[in-house]
Design brief:
Elements (H helix, E strand, L loop, with lengths): L1 E7 L8 E7 L6 E11 L1 H7 L16 E8 L11 E4 L2 E3 L5 H4 L11 E2 L19 E5 L4 E2 L6 H4 L5 H11 L7 E5 L3 H12 L3 E6 L5 H7 L3 E4 L3 H6 L4 E6 L14 E9 L12 H4 L4 E4 L5 H14 L5 E5 L3 H9 L6 E5 L8
Parallel strand pairs: 10-11, 10-13, 11-12, 13-14, 14-15, 16-17
Antiparallel strand pairs: 1-2, 3-4, 3-8, 3-17, 4-5, 5-9, 6-7
Helix pairs in contact: 4-5
């Protein structure tokens, strides 16, 4: 075992605080990683506060991890000491079911092992995430970070990036595609950048007119104000794909008429009960409402390589780990553009 330090929530009411724990010794197929940066995801906040009623404490959040390899197990063949690597939302799966076989480990029939708030498949021990100094991960779930990617800004690609990349790929977005993005937060701004990078015509759909300048700067072609009835009327049948990144329960009915025939609105943000909608909006044009989680490992590597090629990176604000509770408060106020990233060198102050 190796001694680790991180920040953990001890229960749903407590702020995150320094936490000493142990990481397992390397198994034959394991990679040990020194964590340099970790993104702060809205789901970290939900899990720390048990909003989804599934949190296990103590809870060390963090599933947008970048760092360098410090050691490898004897059967590791693709990773080497000193290599720049990344870890996303998963650290294991059964690797033998039909979903794992097709590279969709996030939908493993036996359940993927989450980077934190999960249970180790062999020992049943709690998994602890990237708000820590190092981590041990099975080789198959370790990704390569291209040299041209800025390590500090790359971290949010491991969740915010792949969560929006996966539906763009599933629905074959490319030049000529008409993509709408609802919301312009951590997920939304990545959806805009990635869709634009794929050559799509991109519209940000928002209630806030003051977001227009940012949307255009990020790569959108235009903004559609959803509180403007006339603009929404003119926007009917305008989109092949709408990515809904709103992270809380909301009414999707106003957006359904914006879909063209046989087009799709895909939910990637809200994990909640949503208000009902009139089925006529989807029956008439064979329109679809879908959901999409994170992507698989191969798809995530594809994303990292694409972002390196196109020089696409999240917009980030770097913080010290000691500022994480304040960052959570700011996230609740939507006071961040657009993603917090923790510099884990700051952990040295708590050793």
């Amino acid at each position: 075992m190796t001694q680790a330090i991180g920040y953990a929530a001890k229960d749903a009411q407590s702020p995150l605080a320094p936490f000493h724990f142990e990481r397992r010794d390397l198994r034959d197929e394991d990679v040990a990683i020194e964590i340099l940066y970790c993104g702060v995801c809205h789901s970290d906040l939900h899990q720390a506060r048990n909003d989804w009623h599934s949190s296990m404490y103590p809870l060390v959040p963090g599933h947008e991890i970048v760092g360098t390899v410090t050691a490898v197990g004897p059967k590791v063949s693709k990773m080497a000491v000193g290599q720049k690597v990344a870890v996303g939302c998963m650290v294991d799966s059964c690797l033998s079911c039909d979903q794992c076989d097709r590279g969709m480990e996030q939908m493993c029939r036996k359940g993927a092992t989450m980077t934190y708030n999960g249970k180790d498949r062999q020992t049943g021990d709690l998994t602890f995430g990237g708000y820590s100094d190092h981590i041990v991960v099975r080789e198959e779930f370790v990704l390569t970070v291209p040299d041209s990617l800025d390590m500090e800004r790359a971290a949010p690609l491991l969740c915010a990036g792949i969560t929006t990349w996966s539906p763009l790929r599933e629905w074959k977005v490319g030049p000529g595609s008409r993509v709408g993005v609802i919301g312009l937060g951590g997920l939304g701004h990545m959806a805009v950048k990635l869709a634009a990078g794929l050559g799509a015509d991109v519209t940000v759909i928002t209630t806030s007119p003051e977001k227009e300048a940012d949307a255009l700067k990020l790569g959108a072609n235009r903004v559609l104000l959803s509180k403007d009835p006339e603009a929404m009327k003119k926007g009917r049948s305008s989109f092949d794909l709408i990515i809904d990144t709103v992270p809380v329960a909301h009414d999707i009915q106003p957006y359904l008429p914006l879909l063209d025939v046989e087009s799709t609105l895909v939910l990637v943000g809200a994990i909640d009960m949503l208000p009902s909608f009139h089925s006529g909006h989807i029956l008439g044009g064979r329109r679809r409402i879908a959901g999409s989680p994170i992507g698989g490992i191969a798809e995530t590597q594809e994303l990292l390589d694409f972002c390196a090629e196109k020089n696409i990176l999240p917009e980030c604000e770097t913080i010290a780990i000691q500022d994480i509770n304040g960052a959570y408060e700011r996230m609740e106020r939507s006071d961040v553009k657009y993603r917090f990233v923790i510099d884990l060198a700051s952990l040295s102050a708590d050793r």
